[in-house]
Design a protein that fits this description.
- By secondary structure, the protein is an all-alpha fold.
- It folds into two domains: 3-65, no CATH class; 75-285, MetI-like fold, CATH 1.10.3720.10.
- The chain contains 14 helices and no strands.
- The longest helix has 41 residues, at 3-43.
- The two termini are 33 Å apart.
- The model has no long low-confidence stretch (mean pLDDT 82).
Length: 286
C-alpha cells in the first residue's frame, strides 16, 4: 500500500467519522431552528410574542402553556378547515395512486393501439403550469355545479397530480423483470392477478413514495384551495391565510395553527419513512 493510498483512506475515515457527522448535526440544527421557534411561539402568550423573540422563552419556560391550542380548537372555522384538509388530501392521494398504478402498468406491459403516443401526451402534460388551467377549470366546475366544493378541489388535484404519478410508476414498473410476469402468466394468472399479486407488491416502495409526495403537495397547497374552495370547504392553509389577512399580528392563532398543519405531514412521513427510502434508493440499485 502506497503512502498516498494510506493517506487518502485516512482522510476518508476522518471525514466519515468526525467532520462530516459534525457538519450534518450543524445543518440539522439550523434546519430545525424555524420549527422549534414556531413551536415555542405557539406556546407563548400573545403579549410575550409581541414584546420579544421566541428564544427569550427558553430562560422562562414557566410562561409556556397550551392555552393557545385550546383557543384554536375552540374556533369552529379552524377545526372545520382542518377536517376539510383531511377530506381533500386523503381521497386525492388514494385516487392518484390507484389510477396512476393502473395506467403505469398498462403503459409498461400492455399492448394497445396508440400506447406510445398517449404516454407521450402524458409526459407533455408535465410541463403545463398549474396556473394555466385555473380559469378554464373554474368555469367548467361552475357549469357542473361543483365550484367551491371539496369535490371540485379533489378533482383538480387528481387531474394535475396524475401526469407525474403515471410517469413515475410507468418507469418503475417497466424495470420489473419480464420473466417474473411471464412466470405468472404461465401459472394461469390473469392481468388483474398479475397486477394485484406481482406488480403491486414489487412496486410498493414506489407507491409509498408517490403517496407521501402527493399527500404533502395537497396538504400544503394554498393556491388551488384559495381559488376553488369556498368558506365551507376551505383547507387549513386558506383558513390560516385569511387569519393573517384579517388580523395581521394574531400569532397566538397563526403559530399553533401552522404547527398543527406541520404535525400531520411529519407523522405521515415518519410512518412511511422506510418505504420512502426504499423507493428513493430503488432506482440506484437496479
Amino acid at each position: 500500500m502506497t503512502g498516498r493510498t494510506r493517506s487518502s483512506r485516512g482522510l476518508t475515515r476522518l471525514l466519515g467519522s468526525g467532520i462530516t457527522q459534525a457538519l450534518l448535526v450543524v445543518v440539522a440544527l439550523v434546519w430545525l431552528t424555524p420549527t422549534v421557534g414556531l413551536f415555542i411561539s405557539s406556546l407563548r402568550p400573545s403579549g410575550d410574542n409581541a414584546d420579544s423573540g421566541w428564544w427569550t422563552a427558553l430562560s422562562h419556560p414557566g410562561s409556556l402553556g397550551f392555552s393557545n391550542y385550546s383557543h384554536l380548537l375552540d374556533d369552529s372555522s379552524i377545526t372545520q378547515s382542518f377536517w376539510n384538509t383531511v377530506m381533500i388530501s386523503v381521497p386525492t392521494t388514494f385516487a392518484v395512486v390507484v389510477l396512476a398504478a393502473l395506467a403505469g402498468y398498462a403503459f409498461a406491459w400492455l399492448r394497445f393501439p396508440g400506447r406510445d403516443w398517449i404516454f407521450l401526451v402524458v409526459v407533455g402534460l408535465l410541463v403545463v403550469p398549474l396556473q394555466v388551467g385555473l380559469l378554464p377549470v373554474a368555469k367548467l366546475f361552475g357549469t357542473l355545479g361543483i365550484f367551491g366544493s371539496i369535490t371540485g378541489v379533489v378533482l383538480f388535484h387528481v387531474a394535475y397530480g396524475l401526469p407525474f404519478a403515471v410517469f413515475l410508476l410507468r418507469n418503475y414498473f417497466a424495470e420489473i423483470p419480464r420473466e417474473m410476469l411471464e412466470a405468472a402468466r404461465m401459472d394461469g394468472g390473469s392481468e388483474w392477478t398479475i397486477f394485484l399479486r406481482v406488480v403491486l407488491p414489487v412496486g410498493r416502495p414506489a407507491l409509498a413514495s408517490l403517496a407521501i409526495f402527493q399527500f404533502l403537495w395537497v396538504w400544503n397547497d394554498l393556491l388551488v384551495g384559495l381559488i376553488f374552495a369556498d368558506s365551507g370547504s376551505q383547507p387549513l392553509t386558506v383558513a390560516l391565510q385569511s387569519q393573517m389577512r384579517q388580523f395581521g399580528s394574531n400569532i397566538d392563532i397563526l403559530a399553533p395553527g401552522a404547527f398543527l398543519s406541520l404535525l400531520v405531514p411529519l407523522a405521515v412521513f415518519f410512518a412511511f419513512q422506510r418505504h420512502f427510502v426504499e423507493g428513493v434508493m430503488a432506482g440506484s440499485v437496479k
